[in-house]
Design goal:
Length: 359
């Protein structure tokens, strides 16, 4: 039996990962940056370690006898790369839930180090990323020599959790990102408008316009498919767009941006209910060099349930992975695109809404 360390276990997603991990009868160590973790550890009767993840020397003493590090403590981009160095040094498998493209890019840059040390890492373990990889892989199989792919996300509420909201706001200052030929181009979020309207997935008559946002799929989908140009969008309601515009404006001024983040951390800590959508929808539109188009749209109910199952299944896979597997992978690469259909009730909660051939 391996030992899993769940870092950020006191958060919404961390607690859900903990409950599933306990069902798998794994040896669990709770960890995090906050003393609030102590109460949870007492309730569960589990060992607890409280430490920051800013430098390798302050991390290493707490990683003794740990085999798998599950990182649920966003925002990730604001950190150093110390946890990646520490895990690779101890030959510990690393998993995170990041939806922050900059952090996921950093993990990919550590691929040679993880491979050399004989361990592996998966970044961006989320239902968003897996659905995107599945959809992108399908479109690539249907349309040879794809040159571009647009991914659009809608949901009854976005982001999904408190931590996801903080992660999202922490990267507004980076502007919009699009990946082209393994290079990331930058454009300010508020300037990148896509003139389309999307109905709310619940069927409500709410107009939602798609806006480009920096998401992990710019890293994971490109690595998995090598489609030359990939852009991502999230559909927001008019009120959400107003909030994002305020965030983008503040993001141009680092001091005000830090104040906003601190205020939101305090505010969100006072909320008991997690920010959880009922379903998410991912739409993809691909084009090749001669102007042929393909599109696909899929929807998933209970996305957080899938995310938690994914990260625990990946941890189990890491525990039994032969030494020949090492380096950095996407969730789709390690679990396979048939994972959605082999996960019991998850198949009944995923719907293929439409396919399209616009050539």
């Amino acid at each position: 039996m391996s030992t899993w360390m769940i870092y950020g276990a006191e958060g919404c997603m961390g607690r859900q990962v903990l409950e599933v991990a306990l069902q798998y009868r794994q040896s669990i160590v709770l960890a995090g940056r906050s003393g609030h973790l102590l109460q949870l550890a007492q309730e569960k009767g589990l060992p607890c370690r409280v430490f920051p993840v800013e430098t390798v020397p302050e991390i290493l003493p707490f990683l003794q006898k740990v085999n798998i590090f599950i990182d649920c403590a966003g925002p990730y981009t604001e950190r150093t790369s110390a946890i990646l160095r520490a895990c690779s040094k101890r030959k510990i498998h690393y998993l995170d839930l990041s939806m922050e493209y900059a952090w996921s890019q950093r993990v990919w840059e550590f691929a040679p180090i993880f491979e050399k040390r004989g361990c592996w890492a998966v970044t961006g373990v989320s239902s968003y990323a897996l659905l995107s990889e599945y959809l992108a892989g399908y479109l690539k199989g249907q349309l040879p020599n794809i040159t571009s792919l647009d991914l659009t996300y809608t949901g009854t509420q976005f982001p999904t959790t408190k931590g996801c909201l903080l992660s999202y706001l922490s990267i507004l200052a980076c502007g919009q990102k699009a990946r082209s030929q393994n290079r990331i181009s930058t454009q300010w979020f508020s300037a990148s408008y896509k003139g389309e309207e999307w109905g709310a997935p619940s069927g409500a008559s709410v107009n939602r316009v798609a806006r480009r946002v920096p998401l992990v799929d710019l890293v994971t989908v490109w690595i998995a498919t090598r489609i030359p140009f990939i852009s991502t969008f999230v559909a927001f309601s008019p009120n959400e767009i107003r909030m994002v515009r305020v965030g983008c404006t503040l993001a141009r001024f680092p001091f005000l941006h830090r104040i906003l983040l601190q205020f939101l951390r305090v505010y969100l800590q006072s909320r008991d209910a997690p920010i959880t959508p009922a379903k998410i929808r991912v739409s993809g539109r691909a084009e090749n060099a001669i102007g042929q188009h393909r599109s696909m749209q899929i929807e998933l109910e209970g996305p957080d349930t899938l995310t938690v199952k994914m990260i625990c299944d990946l941890a189990l896979l890491a525990d039994g992975t032969p030494s020949g597997y090492k380096g950095v992978f996407t969730a789709g690469q390690r679990l396979g695109t048939d994972y959605l259909f082999s996960s019991g009730d998850l198949e009944t909660r995923m719907h293929h809404l439409s396919y399209g051939d616009e050539s």
